Amino acid sequence: MNQAVVTKFPVTDGVRHALEVSLRGADELLPVPDWAQKLARAEATGQPLRIKLGLDPTAPDIHIGHTVVLNKMRQLQDLGHQVIFLIGDFTSLIGDPSGRNATRPPLTAEQIRANAETYFAQAKLVLDEAKTEIRYNSEWSDPLGARGMIELAAKYTVARMMERDDFDKRFKAGQSISVHEFLYPLMQGYDSVALKSDLELGGTDQKFNLLVGRHLQQEYGQEPQCILTMPLLVGLDGVEKMSKSKNNYIGITEEANTMFAKVLSISDALMWDWYTLLSFKSLAEITALKQEVQDGRNPKDAKVMLAKEITTRFHSASAAEAAEQDFMLRSKGGVPDDIPEVRLGGAPLGVAALLKQAGLAPSGSEAGRLIDGGGVRIDGAVVSDRGLKLAAGSYVVQVGKRKFARVQLS
Question: Which residue numbers belong to the known binding site for ATP?
């Protein structure tokens, strides 16, 4: 064990503040006393801690739910610590089995390269690029070779591996588990050895893998890392975790107006969880704002502040201001200035066909459902008749609160 762990450093007010920042919104921090001592040592010696986040580039785009761990990285970065954004180009070739009930198909090298190209471009919208170390785990995993892989595998038992929840469930259910899947947590853990990380972050579904890293560091004679898991962000529906498949997400590359409006659509209760996990405001500022709302301030004021902060982060302050003005205009029944123009033929044209051809509805049946629900307006008037046919002319067509088109029909 390193002498640095044995030596007790004083827990100052600065250390207590750093610990509070670390715990903000976290699901679990293990072990808290060890992390407090690491923070104390960093303060006493001036040597920043190494904070690791590994992401497999399994898809090219991320939504704001993915930025919860990035926000935590930024908070620790702002405390002066070194953050390492690790792209798992090697581990992606294996495929992470976390939370899955079947073997995950590995990505091809071409898919990994294509996805990795966009990953950090999006992540740096949250992280301080100048203070971020970018690494690829193929750097040390490829040179490990067959001999090194065998030596690494000898440092962990099958019994310990089968303690992992998804492996245990699949084994008991008689579902197949490929031997290469055991390599994934080992290789993720070896990343911590290679990087000499002091803290590794991940979602709650990554806890087992993070603990493997802690174990392997001890096997290699290193001071073991602490682990910090962050909760999964609840999506727009206020029920399920944010997910593209559930269509309850905000993509970080979505248009500013759409992003702003989507944040405003969440419930008042969910708003405070989002403040904790997504905002860069201090906990004291958030507590004060929450008290103002409890004392009678309109909660929409707080939600607008959150919407502007998030939209500014992924776009700009001016884009956030414009999005606020656009939202106010639409909420009053106004028509934005910059709506798309569409030219269609076939007059007289049925309203459902017009919606589909103008790109305002994915299908005629969905267009009919929107009409039945009172969600379609033409020149400001609600359309209630599915059989309506429109003659040649110019129309402002609105679907819901945010979709508009100026249709020139001939």
Answer: 244
